[in-house]
Design brief:
The complex is a heterodimer of chains A (422) and B (369). Chain A has 2 domains: 244 residues, Spore Coat Polysaccharide Biosynthesis Protein SpsA, Chain A (Alpha-Beta Complex); 146 residues, Hexapeptide repeat proteins (UDP N-Acetylglucosamine Acyltransferase, domain 1, 3 Solenoid). Chain A is built from 10 helices and 29 strands. In chain A, the strands form 6 sheets. In chain A, strands 14, 15, 17, 18, 20, 22, 24, 25, 27 and 28 form a 10-stranded parallel sheet that branches. Chain A has a 7-stranded mixed sheet with strand order 5-4-1-6-11-8-12, with helices on both faces. A 6-stranded parallel sheet of chain A has the order 16-19-21-23-26-29, with no helix packed on it. In chain A, a hairpin with a 2-residue loop joins strand 2 and strand 3. Chain B has 369 residues and is an alpha/beta fold. Chain B has 9 helices and 31 strands. In chain B, the strands form 7 sheets. Chain B has a 7-stranded mixed sheet with strand order 5-4-1-6-11-8-12. Chain B is elongated and about 60 Å long. At the A-B interface, loops of A face loops of B. Chain B: It is an enzyme of class 2 (transferase). Chain B: Keywords: GTP-binding, Magnesium, Nucleotide-binding, Nucleotidyltransferase, Transferase. Chain B: Pfam families: GMPPB_C, NTP_transferase.
């Protein structure tokens, strides 16, 4: 038997995903029509041996319960949400719930970061791990550019055995182009190593009179993986599959494109005749109402209850539930928030922010919304829950929640007209 | 009454066409400025028709370049109106007065006064009233003045209650008058003795001296006035012209469905379903506006095509240009002849030279070579 653990963090994480994460927890943000972590669940459920999926995070249970019960019904596998009592870091939560993971005595468990997107080659990863009896943890690794590698966990492998003999999380200088994808197979013995790491943290905590953060706080990467390097217990399997992190809204559009493409290959079942002109790939929720004169795609996901009126053009965008796009409007490189309304002939246009296509292995630059000068970095446009009236143009802008845009907005202006939570 | 009309009929007119119309580029790269259609009619034809209406039988065009096509086309159009057209070619630009000296023989051929006008002016041309007023005061010249909101940008005209001009003041800092020279005059042939055959400004080197001699009167223009020599003013002038058509209850204005405000649509143009056209739009012959387009404050010239769901505000679309689907163009964008704007682009204040195809958005005003 195998298990899977998905780490989703908490509401104080995912701030780079604002304002989208203000409305929906980031792990539930729809990419290609499915909540972000449903893609993880789907990959885990495909493995017959995987009997239980544990989702660990600091979001309150009521935010997650509906999703969990939906997933239970859909995938016929045990899925549980374990809420951390405090943010314990990537390792702390895992260690805290070790008994839940060990219960039933699984051979091993998969560990997946909630904010990565991939087609998750779990079967291959499991075989790789099984072939190496000394392995406590096998990391899925991928190649990055020299410049971008330093933003990730960097690994150096012994070429013949594939054992990791050096691991550094986000180094200051170049270490290796092989990076950690945040997808692992772990043997249960890893908890022994974690116990040692936990003990060390406790020692530091009590010797510092409780000044050094939470006693249960532990970083999986820094406190567990890095010490395991060079002990022949840590391995890395390099994959060439598509992989990306979803840190910013710009990367959501990029991930959307890839998941749409993957889903097309995986399930060929067509959902009937499309009701309008579709340029693939497009996800159209069955409950969305789309006028026959609209032109949609490529790379568009349209959520439940969305209304798309006559002559609308949408490409490279995600339209969240119950939004309305009125006649003749154009939406590109944008996320349109829940219940938002885009007026007639309005133009909502963001800046494409894909990885540099001319550099092999380039990843998304997950740049924050603002640069160090306080200027808005060009990115996709995000319309929160707001009204964008007729004829207006919005380019490269983030509009947060229940705003009414009464004026055309051009380049590089940043407007927060009304912010619900302040 | 009959007698005075006959007298008017002997009046000649000289139109100062001048140079290449660089301010109206990129349109004037394809067509001489006098032939660029303003409200579906060449700019010059607005003036010639008004002159013919006032009984003018001979029009002299002072041009500083040769354009045989223009001469042929204009001669053809004008002959239908029963007026003769003479081209007076300058070998070097002669300013606003020099061309009168060049055409001296023609203008001196009879003692009747003649009209002089700048070719960029659009208004309710008051030529009949001008001639009448001129004869009533018996002085050498009369100039038409118009009221402007910001006189400090122009040279203003100061005149007495009876119309006699006292002085001209260039760009006054303090308010003196809000009347400016509207670029339309009627002059007696005697004025020609004040003009030499050299580059010379009628405003600076002729009128001030006539005013000094008490020989110059002003007549105030009623209604709108605009110098349409550059794109921004061209569009403003179009709005004023269409408003004036509305006030006159002209049946030229279009009143079909999908139209808002004052709109002029040539009968040969096709308009799709679900469009919103207007206010202040002129659509030329053979233009195709496809379904769901929205056009405001714009001129679409002959043979152009505005494709589905495009949105235009404050644009001039040149002859045979194509504006793609879901394109947004605004802020005084001017497309030259035969320009193609690809689907879904945004053009903000672009001036696009003829025969160009644009595949990238133009987010800030610029010239696209």
């Amino acid at each position: 038997m195998l298990k899977a653990v998905i780490l989703i963090g908490g509401p104080q994480k995912g701030t780079r995903f604002r304002p989208l994460s203000l409305d929906t927890p980031k792990p539930l943000f729809p990419i290609a029509g499915l909540p972000l972590i449903q893609h993880h669940i789907c990959a885990c459920a495909k493995l017959q041996e995987c009997k239980e999926i544990l989702i660990i995070g600091a979001y309150t249970t009521n935010l997650m319960s509906q999703f969990i019960s939906d997933m239970q019904k859909e995938y016929h596998v045990i899925i549980r949400y374990l809420q951390e009592f405090a943010p314990l870091g990537t390792g702390g939560g895992l260690y805290h719930f070790r008994d839940q993971i060990r219960a039933g005595n699984p051979t091993a468990f998969f560990l997946l970061n909630g904010d990565v997107c991939s087609d998750f080659p779990l079967r291959e990863l499991w075989s790789f791990h099984e072939e190496r009896p000394s392995a406590l943890v096998t990391i899925m690794g991928t190649e990055a550019t020299r410049q971008q590698s330093v933003h990730y966990g960097c690994m150096v492998r012994e070429p013949s055995t594939k054992a990791v003999n050096h691991y550094v999380e986000k180094p200051n200088s170049y270490v290796s182009t092989l990076i950690n994808c945040g997808v692992y197979v772990c043997s249960l013995q890893v908890f022994h190593t974690m116990a040692e790491a936990f003990q060390k943290k406790q020692d530091v905590f009590y010797s510092g009179n409780g000044q050094n953060g939470h006693p249960g706080y532990m970083s999986w990467e820094q406190d567990v993986l890095a010490p395991l390097a060079g002990t022949n217990k840590l391995y890395a399997m390099q994959v060439t599959n598509w992989w990306s992190q979803v840190k910013t809204a710009g990367s959501a559009i990029y991930a959307n494109r890839h998941y749409l493409e993957l889903n097309k290959e995986n399930d060929k079942e067509s959902s009937g005749q499309p009701s309008c002109h579709i340029i693939p790939d497009v996800f159209l929720h069955p409950s969305a109402s789309v006028d026959s004169t609209a032109v949609i795609g490529p790379n568009v996901s349209i959520g439940a209850g969305v209304t798309i009126k006559a002559g609308v053009r949408i490409k490279e965008s995600i339209i969240l539930n119950n939004a309305t796009i009125n006649d003749h409007a154009l939406v590109m490189y944008s996320v349109v928030g829940q219940d938002a309304s885009v007026g007639e002939w309005a133009r909502v246009e963001g800046t494409p922010s894909d990885p540099d296509p001319n550099k092999p292995f380039a990843k998304m630059d997950n740049t924050p919304l603002f640069n160090t000068d306080g200027r808005l970095n060009p990115s996709i446009t995000i319309l929160g829950e707001c009204q964008c009236p007729n004829l207006f143009i919005i380019i490269i802008i983030i509009i947060i929640l229940i705003s009414f845009i009464y004026k055309g907005v051009n380049n590089f202006f940043f407007t927060i007209l009304f912010y619900r939570y302040t | 009454m009959c007698g005075s009309d006959k007298k008017l009929g002997e009046i000649r007119a000289l139109i100062l066409v001048g140079g290449y119309g660089t301010r109206l580029r990129p349109l004037t790269l394809s067509r001489p400025k006098p032939l660029v259609e303003f409200a579906n009619k060449p700019i010059l034809m607005h003036q010639i028709e008004a002159l013919v209406d006032a009984g003018v039988t001979q029009v002299i065009l002072a041009v500083s370049y040769r354009a045989e096509d223009m001469e042929k086309e204009l001669t053809e159009q004008v002959s239908k109106l029963g007026v003769s057209l003479t081209f007076s070619h300058e070998t070097e630009p002669l300013g606003t007065a020099g061309p009168l000296a060049l055409a001296k023989e023609l203008l001196n051929s009879n003692p009747e006064p003649f009209f002089v006008l700048n070719s960029d002016v659009i208004c309710d041309f008051p030529f009949k009233e001008l001639a009448k007023y001129h004869r009533s005061h018996g002085k050498e010249g009369t100039i038409v003045v118009t009221k402007v909101e910001e006189p400090s940008k122009y040279g203003v005209v100061v005149y007495k209650e009876d119309g006699e001009i006292e002085s001209f003041i260039e760009k006054p800092q303090e308010f003196i008058s809000n009347k400016i020279n509207a670029g339309m005059y009627i002059l007696n042939p005697s004025v020609l003795s004040r003009i030499e055959l050299r580059p010379m400004s009628i405003e600076k080197e002729v009128f001030p001296f006539m005013a000094r001699d008490g020989q110059l009167h002003a007549m105030e223009l009623q209604g709108f006035w605009m110098d349409v020599g550059q794109p921004k003013d061209f569009l403003t002038g179009m709005c004023l012209y269409l408003t004036s058509l509305r006030q006159k209850n002209s049946n030229k204005l279009y009143d079909g469905s999908g139209v808002v405000g004052n709109v002029l649509i040539d009968p040969t143009a096709t308009i799709g379903k679900g469009c919103r056209i207007g206010p202040n739009v002129t659509i030329g012959p053979d233009v195709v506006v496809e379904d769901g387009a929205c056009i405001k404050r714009s001129t679409i010239l002959r043979g152009a095509c505005v494709r589905q769901h495009a949105w235009l505000d404050g644009c001039i679309v040149g002859w045979r240009s194509v504006v793609g689907r879901w394109v947004r163009m605004e802020n005084c964008t001017v497309l030259g002849e035969d320009v193609i704007v690809k689907d879904e682009l945004y053009v903000n204040g672009g001036q696009v030279l003829p025969h160009k195809s644009i595949a990238l958005s133009v987010p800030e005003p610029q010239i696209i070579m």
